[in-house]
Amino acid sequence: xxxxxxxxxxxxxxxxxxxxxxxxxxxxxxxxxxxxxxxxxxxxxxxxxxxxxxxxxxxxxxxxxxxxxxxxxxxxxxxxxxxxxxxxxxxxxxxxxxxxxxxxxxxxxxxxxxxxxxxxxxxxxxxxxxxxxxxxxxxxxxxxxxxxxxxxxxxxxxxxxxxxxxxxxxxxxxxxxxxxxxxxxxxxxxxxxxxxxxxxxxxxxxxxxxxxxxxxxxxxxxxxxxxxxxxxxxxxxxxxxxxxxxxxxxxx
Length: 252
Hints:
The protein has 252 residues and is an alpha/beta fold.
């Protein structure tokens, strides 16, 4: 992995549309490639290498300019400066993907530069790479970690890796997000909630009903949402049901 060049999908300024920080304005750096292929992924193009990446010229206008991959650290720092010209507008920089921890060596050099600019670092990760997370956790302010359900990924559960990742993140602000659909099972929510509680029952959990995308045509029922929340609440202090708000607002 490169320490000075990054494989990027897009960079833009928008509101956070998922999890506990819904509505906060962030600078998003979306990294290419992922170690998973979830059926509900809403940025499927970012899962594979791309020759170019795009950068929003004017926040909210979707006037995207195309650049060649890989991007250099100096380029990325420059884009952040452009978006951050209006001081105080952005809550943080969202490092997202794909799975950004696949490029952890680059992040070791990029994230300190973000911190030097006085911006918080908000890391979105699928929680399956605890060892890589440990390499950069010292520079991260907020960890938004997914737990992947087998019913939504078509693979076995990754709960042992998720638990290790939560242990790494516990010194920081951390919350967990679980995307679930009509096919998801009560036992999956039970097992995931227990796994979180084994680390700390105070870790907030966001249950996110899947947004219909690609082959997923329908989300879960209201009855299923409430049932799953009740199951999770047996083990965790804070469990919220929050959909993808940015999809409702037509954001990137």
